[in-house]
Every structure is written in C-alpha cells, then in structure tokens.
Write a structure and sequence with these properties.
The chain is mainly alpha-helical and 362 residues long. The protein is built from 15 helices and no strands.
C-alpha cells in the first residue's frame, strides 16, 4: 500500500476551486473563515483556549495529591484499560470498513492503519483536523473520492455525537438530576433534535425552490451528493442496524476502559457514573483547543467527577490517566502507520486543510 502525497486530489481540489470563487467575496465571514484556515492562527487560538481551561482546572486542585494518586495507580487496571482501548480501535476500524464497503473493498488492517493516522493527526493538529486528514489520505489510497470518505467520517461523528448526547442526558438524569451539567445536556439534546428537524425542512425547501438546478447551487449539490455517498450503507435497514450496533459497542468498551481507570485509582463509581463522565469527556473534544484537547478535556473531567463528589485532585488524576491511555496508544500506532505508509507531518497538515476547505466553503 503506498501514497503519493504530492499529487492533489482531483475531486476535492477541483470542487474547492469551483466553490472558492463565489464564496471568497462574502466579506467579514469569508475573511474569518480564511483566517481560521491559517494553521498558525488555529494553533495559537487552540493553545490560548487550552491554557485558559488548564489554568482554571489547576487552580482547583492540589497537584501534589494528584501526583501521589497517579503514582499509586494499580498497574493491572492500567494494563486492562490499554487492552480495552486497542479493542475499541479495532471495532471502530471495522465500522469504518463497513461504511467504505459500497465504494471500495478495504481490508481491516488498512482501515485500522488510516484510522490510527487520523488519531495521530488529531494529537498533533489543532481543531481535530485529523478527521479530514484521514478522509483525504485514505480516499487517495483506496482509489475513491475523498468526498465519499469524508462522508463516511461524517456518519461516524454524527452517530457518535448523537449517542453521547443521549448517554449524557440519561446518565445525568440518573446520577446528577439537579446539576447544571445535566440540564445543559438536556438543552443540547433538544437543540440537536430541533436542528435536525429544521435542517430537513430547509433542505426540502431548497430542493423544491430549484436553487440547486443552476450555477453555484448545482456545484454545491454535487459536493453534498458525493459526501452523501459515504452514508450508502445506512440506506438498508440491516446496514443501519449494523452501524448502530458498531457505534454502541465501542462506546461501551470505552466506558469499561474508564471503569478500569477508576478501579486502578480506587474511585468507587458505578457503570452509570462511568458512562456519564466519559460522555462529558467526549463532548469536551468538540471545543476548539490545542492538539489532543489538552486543558478542555481535563476541565470537563474534573467538573463531571466533581458533580459525583470526587475530590478535585483525585478527579484530575483520573482524567489525566484516561486521557493518556485513550490518546497515547492510538497516536503511537498512527505514528507507526505514517512511517510505514510514508506519510509526513506536513502531508497531514495539507490533507487536513483540503477537505476542511470544501466543508467550510460548501
């Protein structure tokens, strides 16, 4: 399996060039999008956000107690958590392979390799650019449109996000019914449902208006249609059920991973509480921050565990440990995959920006 990182992707670059003209003149909004696509601006903004959240978190804890808690963590629990992370990665790679199946026959090892490259890119690039980077590089390697592979990643992320919102809402009602966080999860869930309904209504209105039959609308619809091909598996009930199962299953494994971390640190939490905290941690990764969600992740973990009555220093120890265990093995595997497939860090930056440009402008 080989890559040619120097050649542009025809689907992505071509559509991006067509869309760039009409959108480039959108005044302040266009300038803001252009500025955000600058990697230096993204990095500086992400680091500033992370530093602010990290400062707030550290001000609430005794770092000495946190260090002592980490040093006394049971090795068996840590080893179990690492094994569970590897199992979760394999399940997610299988889900992605199934999503890609209508467009390309992809071996599990290839899906696993590019999935971990995406995780590695998320660890070194701000604003989670590892997802579009994975779509771009995998599309070229698998011989299919990068817009189609981007569509499969969108299906993954939407499925995960909806599941996490439901878990946080239900678990929040059970473990912390009166908390502000549980209330916020309820608001987010309602907002998500309303947003989906409005999106469907607007989509129907646009289609009936005929705007997609001419000029920019036709080009925009071409992009949407290509991305939509990534959801082809969902058109069959069996395929949709399979993707649903392969979304719930790895999240359950991740919950058990956090449970192993809690066991290693001696935190007396139950599985519903594990799910609540893990859901909050997952939601925190949506905040634009430094690579690896440093700072925002720790703030979310200490806040969620604090709602459950865990001491802030112990909460930070648990959050740091799950952060390292969940992020480091996939990133190291992704680094190995980039070396094996001859992908450079500069290629990841370029790959991350090209599909993102299409998504932002389309």
């Amino acid at each position: 399996m080989s890559l040619d990182p120097g050649a542009p992707d025809r689907d992505v670059a071509g559509v991006a060039s067509e869309l760039r003209g009409p959108v480039a003149g959108c005044g302040l909004a266009g300038a803001a999008r252009g500025a955000w696509r600058n990697p230096v601006i993204r990095l500086v903004a992400g680091v500033a956000i992370s530093a602010a959240f990290l400062a707030i978190t550290v001000s609430r804890v005794d770092l000495g107690e946190t260090a002592r808690a980490l040093s006394s963590a049971a090795p068996g629990g840590i080893l179990l958590a690492i094994m569970l992370v590897l199992g979760e990665l394999t399940i997610r790679a299988e889900r992605w392979r199934i999503l890609l199946h209508p467009s390309a026959q992809v071996a599990l090892r290839s899906a696993f390799a590019y999935l971990t490259i995406g995780y590695f890119a998320n660890a070194v690039l701000p604003a989670r650019l590892g997802d579009p980077a994975r779509a771009y590089l995998a599309g070229r390697s698998f011989g299919i449109s990068s817009l189609v592979t981007l569509g499969t990643v969108v299906v993954e992320r939407v499925s995960d996000a909806l599941l996490i919102l439901v878990v946080v809402l239900l678990a929040g009602i059970v473990v912390a019914p009166g908390s502000q966080l549980a209330g916020s999860a309820a608001v987010l869930t309602v907002a998500a449902v309303i947003g989906m309904v409005l999106a469907v209504a607007v989509g129907i209105g646009v289609v009936r208006s005929g705007l997609l039959d001419r000029g920019f609308g036709r080009r925009l619809w071409a992009v949407v249609a290509r991305v939509g091909e990534g959801a082809a598996v969902l058109r069959r009930p069996r395929g949709a059920a399979l993707i649903l199962g392969l979304t719930i299953f790895p999240f359950g494994v991740a919950v058990c991973t956090f449970g192993a971390v809690c066991g290693a640190l001696g935190l007396p939490l139950d599985p519903v509480q594990w799910a609540f905290v893990l859901g909050v941690l997952a939601l925190s990764t949506a905040i634009p921050a430094a690579p690896g969600s440093l700072g925002t992740y720790e703030f979310a973990g200490v806040t969620a565990l604090g709602i459950l009555g865990v001491d802030p220093s112990q909460a930070l120890a648990a959050t740091v440990l799950i952060h390292v265990i969940a992020a480091l093995p996939p990133a190291l595997l992704g680094l190995a995959s980039t070396l094996i497939l001859h992908v450079r860090i500069a290629d990841l930056q370029t790959a991350g920006s090209v599909p993102a440009t299409v998504a932002a402008e389309g």
